[in-house]
Specification:
The protein is α/β, with parallel strands linked by helices and 423 residues long. The protein is 40% helix and 18% strand. It folds into two domains: 3-285, 3-Layer(aba) Sandwich (UDP-N-acetylmuramoyl-L-alanine:D-glutamate ligase), CATH 3.40.1190; 293-419, Mur ligase, C-terminal domain (Protein-Tyrosine Phosphatase, Chain A, Alpha-Beta Complex).
């Protein structure tokens, strides 16, 4: 099997769950020899901030000297980014080899596995062969019935900010969504969570932890003290006077970092050796593309893959804070199954103009339909034939002293970063 054939096989698998449950992934992994059983994990669920939190944890653990697996989704440029060891994505040849092995086992099953189950099985096999000390494992969707939830009790479960998203599958209230996310909490486990969660969310998490005999550490929002920030990064303290440098921008990233620091304390209690210097280095050097990422100046070009209302709120706050008084030209593309109206209503007040593009995905909202929704805000609205053309149009509309922000979907970020020459 070649690399191209491996990707073709993976993407040929059904995407939706025929029936919620872990039976298929359990059967597949059993046929594979249960590679996931040889590993230890930090399991990460939530609506927003999962990827950034995973990147911070991975960076800290690597700085502490551990061999760290990182499993995330989706990818920005190449599929291989979804599974990494010590920051290095799986090699094309090894991905093809492991995919062929997984396919041979999947073909023995009566029930076909969906795409995410196949990808997760490939990830587990990759991390097991690499003999990772620990894997930072991001949930794909929800938690309770997510394929990653096949693992036994992790070293720590981290639950990031919870909001309304994927309501057609997870429920249309915060309580329902929190219940699904909290499905990763195991009997006797240890849980850390994001500060400033809604009381409804905390109530669900606390009740489930009580029922399962799990401990719960809630990061404290009023213990976060911002010392300094600019477009190169920020410095903050959490719970003491020790300044920490964070390369990611936005107050929501300080909150993500606070939850990560609570998770680190849980790991320390379990005898993982993580010195203060590793925390300093890990946070200062962490990189996570497409999350309020500054890609250029004159005009400033910001890439932010936010795609739901809480993301839009954080994005608007950051744009107003870092670019006070400047109107923003948005390069925007969205998936049709997202809360498009809620997203654009949130960012519209800081917009000077919109340039709409269509992503090359079946679920993508057509640029023309997006433009129709935007015109009611009485801003300049343009439709571009592609991302590169749209970026040039947005730059022209913003002018050298302005701000361009590409947003609406993580699937837009790869093309924008490539057009800007980012790697």
């Amino acid at each position: 099997m070649t690399y191209t054939e491996a990707l073709s096989y993976i993407h040929s698998r059904p995407r939706g769950l025929p029936k919620p449950g872990l039976e298929r992934i359990e059967e597949l992994l059993s046929l594979m020899g249960n590679p996931h059983k040889s590993l230890r994990y930090v399991h990460v669920a939530g609506t927003n901030g999962k990827g950034s939190s995973c990147a911070m944890l991975s960076s800290i653990l690597r700085a502490a000297g551990y061999k760290v697996g990182l499993y995330t989704s989706p990818y920005i440029h190449r599929f291989n980014e979804r599974m990494q060891v010590n920051g290095k994505p799986i090699a094309d040849k090894l991905l093809a080899e492991i995919t062929e092995f997984v396919r041979s086992k999947a073909e023995e099953m009566d029930r076909p596995c969906v795409e995410f189950e196949i990808v997760t099985a490939i990830g587990f096999e990759f991390f097991a062969r690499a003999k990772c000390d620990i894997v930072v494992l991001e949930v794909g969707l929800g938690g309770r019935f997510d394929a990653t939830n096949v693992i036994d009790c992790p070293e720590c479960a981290l639950i990031t900010s919870i909001g309304l998203d994927h309501t057609d599958m997870l429920g249309d209230t915060l309580s329902q969504i929190a219940f699904e996310k909290a499905g990763i909490i195991k009997e006797g486990g240890a849980v850390a969570t994001y500060p400033a969660q809604d009381e409804e969310v905390i109530s669900v998490l606390a009740n489930i932890c009580r029922e399962r005999g799990a401990s719960l550490r809630i990061a404290e929002d009023d213990e976060i003290e911002l010392i300094y920030d600019d477009l190169q990064g920020q410095e903050f303290c959490y719970c003491d006077d020790t300044p920490l440098r964070l390369s990611l921008l936005g107050d929501h990233q300080c909150r993500n970092a606070a939850a990560v620091l609570e998770a680190v304390e849980i790991l320390r209690e379990k005898k993982w050796k993580i010195k203060p210097e590793a925390i300093d280095k890990g946070l200062a050097e962490v990189k996570w593309p497409g999350r309020f990422e500054i890609l250029g100046e004159k005009p400033y070009v910001v890439a932010d893959g936010g795609h739901n209302v809480p993301c839009a709120e954080a994005l608007r706050s950051n744009l107003e804070y870092y670019f006070e008084g400047k109107k923003v030209t948005f390069l925007i593309a969205m998936m049709a199954d997202k809360d498009v109206d809620g997203f654009i209503e949130t960012i519209a007040p800081c917009a000077g103009a919109f340039v709409c593009v269509t992503l090359d995905y079946p679920r993508a909202l057509k640029a023309e339909k997006l433009a129709e929704k935007l015109r009611k805000y009485k801003k300049s609205v343009f439709v571009a034939p592609g991302v590169a053309e749209g970026l040039n149009m947005a730059k022209g509309a913003a002018g050298k002293g302005g701000v361009v922000c590409a947003t609406g979907s993580l699937y837009l970020m790869g093309s924008v970063r490539e057009a800007m020459g980012a790697k």
